[in-house]
Every structure is written in C-alpha cells, then in structure tokens.
Write a structure and sequence with these properties.
By secondary structure, the chain is α/β, with parallel strands linked by helices. It has helices at about 5-10, 35-45, 110-125; strands at about 25-30, 50-55, 70, 80, 100-105. The longest helix has 14 residues, at about 110-125.
C-alpha cells in the first residue's frame, strides 16, 4: 500500500502489508452519516471494501463556518444553506446518500436481530472474492 506511510505515520503505527487478502465488508444504513458516511464513500470509491446494507443518511459535509446566511426575498426569512459538498469519484456527492454495493432487504420495522439474520443469510449465500 503506497499510502501506508501517510495513513499510519501520525499514529506511529508500524504498518506492514500482509499476505491476508480477505474481502472487507462494511455495513451501512440510514443511520450512517457524517464521517462514517465519508469513510464508506472513500472505501467504495477506491474499491477497498464492499458496502452492504441500505442507503446512507445523505448528510454530506453540510455546514462549515456556519453555512451561507441568506434572506429569502419574498418572506424575509433568514436561512442557512449548506456551503460544503464532498464530490465522489463518479462526480456525484453524498447528499442523496451512498447506495451500497449490495442492498439488503431491511425494512424500518426490522429489529437488529432480523437485520443480522438477513445479513447472515446473504453472507452464507454470497461468493465473495
């Protein structure tokens, strides 16, 4: 990994590339937002992991420095608009959420146990590299 020095030097972690090349699976859902969403997007864009689950929250990076203060001309209402967006390798951004590589049939009423059961069923039937 050419970026190993950049990624691990600040923590003084002595990273060495290993022989283990197992697939990395990252679970995401509607509660995946902010830096977790950004991390998932980076993994997916660099084909470093397979994202599994549901579409993420779509938080994007939102407001930096308080956003853009705007007064609406007709109502006079003051609003703050997002002033930041993270573009992905395909030109899209995170605002609409990240669509995982594998969509699992989770529904809102599913308990964590039911979600885990559906995930296990998919893992048992998948043929990951």
């Amino acid at each position: 990994m050419k970026s190993g020095w950049v990624l691990f030097y600040p923590s003084q972690y002595h990273y060495t590339e290993g022989a283990n090349h197992l697939p990395l699976i990252v679970l995401v859902d509607g509660d995946t937002a902010s830096s977790a969403e950004y991390f998932a997007a980076m993994l997916q864009d660099n084909k470093a992991a397979t994202l599994v689950g549901q579409v993420t929250a779509g938080a994007g990076c939102g407001f930096t420095n308080g956003g853009i203060k705007t007064e609406l001309s007709y109502s006079g209402a003051n609003v703050r608009l997002p002033d930041c967006v993270r573009l992905r390798s395909d030109g899209s951004d995170e605002v609409n959420g990240i669509v995982p590589d594998i969509l699992l049939p989770w529904v809102e009423r599913d308990s964590r146990y039911q979600q885990a059961t559906k995930l296990k069923r998919w893992l048992d039937s998948s043929r990951l590299p």
